[in-house]
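Hey team,

Filing this mostly as a record. A colleague (T.K.) asked me to run one chain through the structure pipeline before their review meeting, and I want the input and output archived in the tracker in case anyone asks later how it was produced. No errors, nothing strange. Just documentation.

Input sequence:
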Amino acid sequence: MKIAIFTDCYTPIKNGVVTSVKQLKEGLEKKGHLVVVVTVAVPNYEEKDPHILRIASIKLGLGTEQRIGLVQQKKINNFLKEHEIELIHTHTEFSLGFSGKAAAKKFKLPHVHTTHTMWEDYRHYVLNGMLLSPKIIKIGLKIFIKNVKAIIAPSIKAKNYWQKLTPHTLIEVIPNGIDLTKSKNKQLDENKITEMKASLGIKETNKILIFVGRIGQEKRIMELYNTLVPLLKENENLKLLLVGDGPLLAKLKEKTEKLGLVNQCIFTGFVDWETVQILYRVSNIFVTASLSEVHPMTIIEALFSHLPIIARKDESIFDLVANKVNGYLVDTDEELGQKVKELLSQPEFLADFAKASFKLAKNFTAVEHVNHVEKLYQRVLEP
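Output structure:
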């Protein structure tokens, strides 16, 4: 097969969407398929791969590195024609998504779309949500999805959302996965882990709670922080490790200073993928209060790192967290804090949950993801 992937998130940008798309491309190529990518140009980054077309772009302003392509449809069409593309797969609902949609119509190609984001949870980035109501967002998504042959939903939550928008479109739940050839958590050099602990001031007596993700409102990071503050105050051996960057990072640091918790809260800012793997390994429990996820790669990574998960109950992670097996799914922020305290006081449960997480993780590999996507492609290409 000859596939064109359209995405406004790709290297050198690093996030869950980039990881998913890159793994899909590489996995399909290993199976002998031709995969080209149409994506955004990034300042100071030179593309050398002839199978990747970079389109001029501007920063979107969503509190992230998200960029939007300034579409050159003729150039894109020529690129697709040159590679004799048979199928279009979009991973964005912005301009490059519509460009892929236009190309599919022009060349009469099947169009598959993967949804990665619950955009209604990001309205606050545009004039505090005053211009973008949930109704307007739904109208835009309905326009985009018209004539799409199939939608890939990474979770049941995403499927349920899109099924209401387009009840007659084929929607396949295909979970995200991790490339095991790159995720070598079990074989990580113990020296690197020891060095990381020393650099962060972590002692053997410390217990570490870790959150990995964007430090932004949509992740409910302030709610998570406020829930954990009482636990930090009553247990000086407990530390909170916040990995990531975002618009609320400065506010969190300022609040930490005011509360006198500087020695217990560690802010890494943005770090590369290899460093994140070590940070998972120095931690004891992954915590999140986010309700805006689709199928978070960070939790899958945490599972492979033998971490119990304590999270707010949300359809996006029902297949990743088995309540009372590898963690807890809770109804309130208050209960989240209670479960953290409870699990830390029960080391035997902590160890059992860690083993269960790694066992569960084996269901979420990049190989499985690629195999499922390949089968869907074959179905939509059938006459």
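Quick notes for T.K.: The CA atoms of residues 182 and 274 lie 9 Å apart. Residues 2-177+365-381 form a domain with the Rossmann fold fold (CATH 3.40.50.2000).
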